[in-house]
Amino acid sequence: MGRILLFAVLGLFTAFAAGPFLWVATMSVRTTTEISLDHYAWPEKWHWDKFPAAWFNSNYNVYFENSLLVVLSAVAVLTVVGAMAAHCFARYRWRTNRLLYFVIFSAIIFPPQITIISLFQILVQYGLYNSLVGLSLVYIAVQLPLTVYILESFFARIPSDLFDAARIDGYSEWQIFWKVSLPIALPALATTVILNTILLWNEFLYAVVLITDDAKRTLPLGIQRFMGDQLEDVGMIATGLMIAIVPVVLIYAFFSEKLIQGMTAGAVK
Amino acid sequence: MATVSLAQLAKKYPGGSGLAVDAVSLEVAHGEFMVLLGPSGCGKSTTLRMIAGLESITSGDLSIDGRRVNDVPAKDRDIAMVFQSYALYPHMTVLDNLAFGLRRRAIAKADIERRVRAVAETLGLSELLSRKPHALSGGQRQRVALGRAIVRDPKVFLFDEPLSNLDAALRVGMRGELIKLHHRVGATMIYVTHDQVEAMTMGDRICIMNSGKVAQIGAPLEVYRNPADTFVASFLGSPPTNLIPARFNGTALLVGESRLPVARNTAIESVIFGIRPEDIRIDGAAPHAHGEVLAVEPLGAETILRMRIAGVAGDLMVRGPRTVAAKVGERVPLAFDLAAAHLFDPATSRRIV
Known about the structure:
The complex is a heterodimer.
Chain A: H1 2-28, H2 32-37, H3 50-57, H4 60-91, H5 97-106, H6 112-125, H7 132-155, H8 160-168, H9 173-184, H10 186-201, H11 205-210, H12 219-224, H13 234-264
Chain B: E1 4-11, E2 21-28, E3 33-37, H1 44-52, E4 59-64, E5 67-68, E6 79-82, H2 94-103, H3 109-123, H4 138-152, E7 156-160, H5 168-185, E8 188-193, H6 196-202, E9 205-210, E10 213-218, H7 220-225, H8 230-235, E11 242-249, E12 252-255, E13 258-260, E14 270-275, E15 280-282, E16 289-298, E17 302-309, E18 316-321, E19 331-336, E20 342-344
Parallel strand pairs in B: 3-8, 3-9, 6-7, 7-8
Antiparallel strand pairs in B: 1-2, 1-4, 4-5, 9-10, 11-12, 11-14, 12-13, 14-20, 15-19, 16-17, 16-19, 17-18
Helix pairs in contact in B: 2-3, 2-4, 3-4
């Protein structure tokens, strides 16, 4: 009886979570005309050709590449710099340690809408407006506080005896970071990598404000291109969405276990 | 092998009130097993960490083999340390844990391999080399921590309460192994503990510390028999030395209502009379006092009695043989071994006699 209830609840939740995904998936292989006739129908004919059409004719290969470039570089820098900062905050005591930590972390409370105009002006000033490097830098700046926060709480739980042992074993502070801190913090690092990748992969607001060239659009902006003033190519939007979703789903599929490990690490000893 | 010399070593933590370590002077000889003993917070671990180079030295001089090393970083002092928490690197196998310290030191790969295997062999870790620390028992982790120190072949071994995380039976076993290790490698070892049994059984000499200062340095039995002050007298021994306020009256020492024939060779009139529980006998032949039995603790090999004697506020602890037949509430005659007793100055708490 209990099991039936459990499966019923799980089934409902799965439908709730997977339903929209499935809907977009079916639309991605139907034409806009077919969709406007019946929004929810199962594809009569599977228009697989929409994917190469989107990829080559609608510039998705460029958008995908841009997204990959921006997100990967941002996540790489975030992970390394964030881990270094977190290591220092967790490991070393100096007078302004907590103050600096608070200042960095408090940046989280500002919604992006508040900072975006000044960000825009700063980027224009430094010639970074409408450039992938600029967007990547913005992503790093925006995600760094949360990254440091997650990693600091993990680093702080590494017993200081380990660092002392490594110092006596002859290692410098720099080597200790790479050979002791980082490997031990791998689950937490995986969490931040996944979190940042997914968040930035889907990021729209900063990208739409800071990028204008079609050739520099990231995937979310590319999808937006199909929303015209007069008509929306719903079918192509769905195809674009599927292209954008695939990497995220893949990351989840391969790393979800690590993600959960990282998030619950230390919760149970 | 090396000598370690501490001269007026002091440590003040920023923001801390007073000195955590206060003018500690200590000479550790070549190959000596020196135990730093004291209650928690007495500064013994801080002293060890200063020797290790993990804490900066506020003032005083620290020398290893005659060379001042105050400003030499931990990695260049050629010391190894075993931590209470073992501090094994959780992401490395036992083999890597053992080799980690050697890989830093320009030693040929084959040489490292050989040394690690040799140490693993002597510690019975050969089967465990590919395991990670979380898959080891407490005793095995302890061995790895020990092996990590041995494999380095350092000038000085430092131990920071290495046995306190082990259960009682394992602790006794490891104690024996550490003594054997010391005999085999003959290196200078400095060992911090709060456990007086470890200190008594392992140390060539004991340095007893109290609130940051050295209370007494000496061979275990010397320190036990001739405590420098009331702190050492009450810290060493279980149950500890009985410390009873007493007063000279003419030719006798008044302890409560009892008159003890103690020769007066001090100008101080009011003293503290210290006598170990084992130096008191239940003896009707020539009793010095009578005590009322408050509690009896038969420990099998011996019997601990808690007594009250007339005119003394605190209880008197007496260590008797296992054959003691005294019952609670009974009044028994007590004889003191006055040759083994000590007098302390209540003002300075130092020993007079």
